[in-house]
Amino acid sequence: MKKSTKDSITEITLTLSVVGVLTSVCLLIASDHEPTCAEYGCKKSRWNGSIYCMDHEQQYGKKQKKKNSYRQTAKPNTYQSMGSTENQYQTYDPYDASDYGDGDDFAEEWAEEFGNGDYDSGYDDAYDYWEENH
């Protein structure tokens, strides 16, 4: 039995329809898939525009970004923020020494902190800190 042209066209149309549906399903699945972390073997989703997931961004991302990095200076509890676009240092002072107009006021408030609980031994250190940082 010979197939008619109409049957051949119907068969080709059906085959192309099936291929089209399968292609559409594959594209739909692929477009719904989020990109994963750049760390080899990690299958977690990327975090906040990074090439890494949140865990690896905290581990590797900071090495690439100097904008928000801090380093400890010689002064205790004082940090310098290193900007990536400018070479200026901004000092972070956890005691806000610049808010005090008088070194004695600062030393009286922070003496125990500087003396590890001992007011008398911490007073001079607190006053010296205020002189260097106000």
Structural overview:
- The chain is mainly alpha-helical and 134 residues long.
- 49% of the residues lie in helices and 8% in strands.
- It is built from four helices and three strands.
- Strands 1-2-3 form a three-stranded antiparallel sheet, with no helix packed on it.
Please indicate the percent range of residues in DSSP E strands (runs of 2 or more): 5-15%
Rg on CA atoms, Å = 33 Å
Q: Output the helix-strand order.
A: HHEEEHH
Number of strands: 3
Mean pLDDT: 75
Residue ranges: pLDDT <50 for 5 or more in a row?
63-74
Number of helices: 4
Largest sheet: 3 strands, antiparallel
Beginning-to-end CA distance, first to last residue? 102 Å
Strand order of the largest sheet: 1-2-3
- The shape is rod-shaped
Estimate percent helicity.
40-55%
Q: How does the helix and strand content classify structurally? A: mainly alpha
What are the SSEs and their pairings?
Blueprint: H1 5-32, H2 54-64, E1 70-72, E2 79-82, E3 89-92, H3 103-114, H4 119-133
Antiparallel strand pairs: 1-2, 2-3
Helix pairs in contact: 3-4
Provide a compact summary of the structure:
The protein is mainly alpha-helical. It has 4 helices and 3 strands.
List its traits:
mainly alpha; three-stranded antiparallel sheet; 4 helices; 49% helix
